[in-house]
Structure formats: structure tokens, C-alpha cells
Amino acid sequence: MKLPTLKIVINETLSPIGRFPLAMAALLVAVISGIQVVNVLDNQTPSLIVKLFLTAILGAPLMLSFELYSETKTLGRMKKMSILIFLILILSIYFMLLPENFINAVSKHHIRFLLLLAAVHLIVSFVPFSGIKNANGFWQFNITLLSRWGTSFIYSNVLYAGFALSFLALDRLFGFNIIHQRYMQLWIVICIGFNTLYFAGGIPNNFQNLTVAEIPRVIKNFAQYILASLILVYAVILYIYVGKIVITWSWPQGWVSRLIISFAVLGFLTNLLLSPNKELLKNAWSETFRKWFLILLLPLILILVLALSERVDNYGLTESRILGYIIAAWLFFISVYFLFGSRQNIKMIPASLTLILLLISYGPLSLFNIAENNQITRLTEILTANKTLVQGKVIENGGTLNKKDQEKIYKILEYLRETHGFEKIEGWFSVPILDKNEKKINPYLEPEKLMALMGIKYDKAYQSNYFLISVQKPEELNISGFENVIADIEFNKYNATEQKFSTIALKLNDKKTDLLFNLNGSRRSENWQCLNLANFCDSMIARNGTLHEIKTSQQKLVIDIFFAEIKIKFVFSDINLLKTNFGYEITSVKFSIFLKK
Fold this sequence. Notes:
Layout: H1 6-19, H2 21-43, H3 48-72, H4 77-97, H5 107-126, H6 135-174, H7 181-200, H8 217-248, H9 256-273, H10 278-281, H11 284-315, H12 319-340, H13 348-359, H14 367-385, E1 389-390, E2 393-394, H15 403-419, H16 447-453, E3 466-471, E4 484-492, E5 499-500, E6 505-508, E7 515-518, E8 529-531, H17 533-543, E9 549-552, E10 558-563, E11 566-580, E12 583-596
Parallel strand pairs: 3-9
Antiparallel strand pairs: 1-2, 3-11, 4-12, 5-6, 6-7, 7-8, 10-11, 11-12
Helix pairs in contact: 1-2, 1-7, 2-3, 2-7, 3-4, 3-5, 5-13, 6-7, 8-9, 8-11, 9-11, 11-12, 12-14, 14-15, 15-16
């Protein structure tokens, strides 16, 4: 294969600027705002720049779709302007609907962004062929896009690695003091900016004349021998499992849904790679594979629905479970379409997926609306049955809840806290439960505190994976000579971001295992010192056997550190931990700090 010259690479990188000016303008906004977002992420402060960055990230492929559509259609000036104004209006509405503090917002906003990002990229794959009956051309267009994406991905990541290493060399060898944000900003410029420019430079423009004389040997061999082999292995495993279900008459496990979806993805990918035209295949095996893959998939869709239903019966609907049901319904529709449809068209796959993604992102049919309402209904039923919720108002100590109901309530509140917030149940309480100050990073109560307002005493120590270490009774500590005291500091997994004081800055690390502190006020990562709190607690938990609620003396919850000629005394009062597959995670911690030189 002949490698492209530097001149060709440069020309192909710059050519989209003239061909797709609107998309490239959105890309420029995304890169510039993304560079600024890096600073916002570091400081954890709300900013409109984050909203601009997200909107521009969606706007670039959306504008690219519009410009590709304009190339294939003869649009009058008024019609073209009308469509453009409509798209700008859609992006403006999305910008306004984004929360002011997207970085620390509840996760439904993050999930919605990913759904919309997938939708706008799918639109690029089929919009140039809307109304064009050229299945071969559609296939060739998307194979070209896939190939171009792979090339641009390799080029941009190698380029980024080279520049990042040169930055590191300048920092280590010559003391340039390159702060860590520069690496992220470099990634945005190259892996978003250059990557998209180079990708767009390879988009075909002769849509009407695109055709396929023969499927490339590399694609054909990859689909027939590699992907087909993986599909066969998945099919054997899944059908052995189906046999086990029939013999033991047991419900399928939830995890099997992932394997079924993987089987479906690989199967449809194989079919798409071999789908420009049946006559081109000239291979009876390939046509047999198409038919039997779809036939084998249909019973597995039923298993997928049963596995999801088992989880829903026990824990209710969540976004992931609703999405699982939607995937099952879509797989059934597509399977029937390609098995029995008289006018089969592979454009149906990206077009139908795009429509679904848009429908489930906003409105009454959205994942978020359905899941939140279902969980609130479950919560209402439990509280009403236990006389804790009467006529839409919480009655403290209205009833006695068993541990099973307490656990259900906690799980629902934890889900609402992380995914939606508590706005829809705010009216249940006689006291305000939400902080309306939008500048605060953590505006919502923790689940156990909300349960306390319901008159329900819930101890996370009841849960086998939760541990609580606290002071048995307050004790006098020797703090003579400590001239600086910072009392009642609190972090939790919902608010682990930086807290600044006059002499020290503190935060939890991303994994919620370490308490980080900084006396220099510098953003450089090497100036943050680490107190491994998870390991400190691990040894204490190990000494206490099977206890989940550990009461200990104050002295055992004191850690002294000498750093930069300053003595720091960390005095902890409560540490809540969650045991995970990778160790312990700090879910909340309360402490005070004493400093002296």
C-alpha cells in the first residue's frame, strides 16, 4: 500500500474548510471552548463554556449532515436558510436546556448527551442517500467513512503521543513546568480538531455514481472468517444456556443480556459488511449465514426480555433496563424486516436507530421520564403501605419499616439522587430539601439524610458491603502549638471536589480512595500530596473481624503528617466506606485539620 505524501495529508486536512464551512465553524468553536473547559474541569466551577463546548460537539456532525444533504439536493435559497435556522434553533434550545453545572449534574444529562451524540453521527451515515435508491452506493459511502475514521484515528493518536512526549521531555529535561492541563488541551486540538478535519477530507462527493464492483477481499475475509467465527462461539454458548433454562426451568440471569446484545451487534456488523448486493457475494454460505443468524437471533430476543423482566420485577425500571427493552424490540423488528420484507434496504438500520435515539432522549417517551416515574411509584407504594406517606405528605415515624423495605427505599433514593435528583418528591416534605443556590456543587441531600426526614433510621452498616468507622465518644486531644484550625470538613462521593482554605486545599481523588491536600496553591498535579485513607481504614476493618459498624477511640482516628516544615494533624470523626471489587471506596468522611509550623 502506497503511503500518502505530506502534501496530500495537508490538502485532505484543509479541504473540508471550503466544502463544509458550517461544520468546520462548529468544530472551531468546539476546540476553542474545549481548551477553556479544561480549566473549568480543574476548578470544578459552573460555566457557560461547558454548555458551549457540548453544543458545538453536537453541532459539528449536525451541520456536516446538513451540508451533505445540500450537496445531494437542489435546494432553493429560502429552503436552505429555513433548514439552517431550524437546526440553529434546535442547538440553541439544547444549549438553554443544559444545566448550568453540567460537570456535576445528575447523570441523566450525561446519558442524554451521549444518546444525542450517537444520533447526530448516525445521521451523517445515511442523510446523503435520503431519496436515492442506490444500496451499493450507500454501502460504499459508509465503508469509506469507516476506513477514513480508522485512518484519522491512528494519525491523530500517533500525532498526539509524539507531541505529548515532546512536552514531557521539555518539562523533565529543561524545567519548562508544563502544567497537566496542557496535555488535555493538546488532545482536544489534535484528537478532536485535526482528527475531524482529516476525517471530513475523505468524505466522498459523487454520491450518485458510487458503486461496488466487488467487495474488497480484506472486508470479505474479515467478515466471513473472523466475525463469523466469533458469532458461532457466541451462538453455541447462548444456546447451551437456553437449554439449561429449559431443563431447569429457571429465569435467565441479567448478565446474559450483554452477551445477546454482543451477539446481535457482531451479526449485524457481519451482514452489513457483506450487504452491498447479494449478486456480488457469489457465495451460498454467506446467504445461508444471513438467514440463519436472524433465525437464531429471534429466540435469544425472548431470553433478553425475560432476563430484563427479572431485574425489573425486583428493582424497577432504570434507563439501562428500558434501553434493553428498546434494543430487544428493535432487534425483533429488524430481524423480521430482513427475513420477510419484500423491499429490504440496509439504510433502515441507521435510520431507525436515529429515530429511536431522538425519541428516547426527550419528552414523555424518554428513558428518563419513564424510569423516574416508575421508581417514584415504587417508592410511593412502599411508603404508603408503611403509613410513612399519607395523602402525598411524609409523616415522620408514621410506620415501622423492616430492613428489606429500608433497603428498597435507600436504593430508590440513591438512584434518584445520582440520576435525576429529588425535585419530583420535594413536595412530600414540610421542610425544603433542595438548595436553590445553583452555584453550589452538591445541591441535593444524601439518601440516608432524606430517610431521616421521613423518620426512618437507616444504617448503611446493615448492608454487607458498607462499613462505618466513627468515634465512640469525643476525647480531648493535645493540640498545643497548633495555630491554625479548620473544623467540620466534609466530603462525600457526590461532592468530592476541591475545597480551598487560606492555608490548604483538599479534595478526594477520582477513585474515592485517597484524601489529597495541597499547601502550595499550585494546580500542578505533583504538588498534591496523598493521604491513603482507604488503606488506613482497610487495616482497621481487618482487625475488627465481621463488624460493619466500628466504634473506636478518637486517638485511633488521628493521622499526623509532616510536610514542608509544617505539621498537619488530621482528626477524623466519621468515615463511611463501600467495599468494591477493587478495594474500599470512601462514600463520605468528616474531619478537622490542625496545622503548625
